Amino acid sequence: MIAPQLCVTALSKAFGGVMAVDQVSFDLEPGKVNSIIGPNGAGKTTLLNLLTGVYAPSAGNVVFDGADVTGLAPHQLAARGMGRTFQNLQVFFNMSALENVMVGRHLRERAGWLAAMLRSPRLAAGERESREEAAGLMQFVGLGEYLGAEADAMPYGALKRLEIARALGGRPKLLLLDEPAAGLNQTETQAINALIVRLAQSGVTVVLVEHNMRLVMGVSDHIVVLDYGRKLCEGSAEQVRNDPRVIEAYLGSAEPEAC
After folding, report:
1. pLDDT more than 70, % of the chain
2. In whole angstroms, what is the distance from residue 195 CA to residue 179 CA?
């Protein structure tokens, strides 16, 4: 039996008198595509913020790669191999596309401040390595045509994949994607779909928060369903698709459409 890479136990978050996430527990296997779905206000993004250290939980714990990481800051989790993207674009529009991806490698840089001040050969070699790896990541996410582009000249769909490339710069073992298909047309959504599959095939565990049910059902190995901050159910796409509680609370029909 494969040991879970992420174990979430009774995780809760209260904002005043409102329990946004309430006693949520689940385990995620490595190298799988996992989705978190639920109606608006179900607590999906709050749960992602708890997992990635943006919020400290009110109760419960998170174990990642066998270590208790509950309450660690985002940069500490990133150093342990956890990456994420956000629902709204977080792109540096005053930089090139390649430079945006290079920013994601800062935790993996070996040259310190002294090498930077002295412009040592080690720094120059590190910059070359960073540029080469960033270019490779852009190719991986399907942005090879934008290697020489400025970020502010790229279309919205390409920018969504640019953010994923930047997150990959930190060499994550676990990558959390918050609505990567939001605002995309059908062709762009298909590109995101194919990219998520490639990520899992490369060994990265994916956690996906997404409203596009066609995408979720087509790409997910495992789905956790939230409703009013609590876990409603979990299982394979087929199990979730046919669960009467999910149909009533969220999907609305046995054959979900993109929403």
Report:
1. 88
2. 14
DSSP 16: T
Q: Is it the case that residue 182 has pLDDT exceeding 50?
A: yes
**Please, are residues 121 and 175 in contact by the beta-carbon 8 Å criterion?**
no
The set of residues, in sequence order, having a beta carbon less than 8 Å from that of 47 and lying 6+ positions away, is 11, 21, 24, 36, 226
**pLDDT tens-digit readout, 101-136:** 999 887 665 555 445 555 666 656 667 888 999 999
Look up residue 212 and give its DSSP letter: B
Q: Cα angle vertex 200, ends 194, 204, to 5°? A: 130
Q: What is the pTM of this model?
A: 0.87
Beta bridge partners of residue 177, listed in sequence order: 208
Confidence at 257, pLDDT banded by 50, 70, 90: very low
How does pLDDT run across 39-56, given as a tens digit for each residue? 888 999 999 999 999 999
At 25, the amino acid letter reads S
Alpha-carbon distance of 249 to 247, in angstroms, equals 6
Strand, helix or coil at 55?
A: coil
Q: Which two tokens stand for residue 240?
A: 């979730």
- Record the tokens describing residue 221, joined without a space: 């190995």
The single residue listed with the structure tokens 């949520």 is: 24
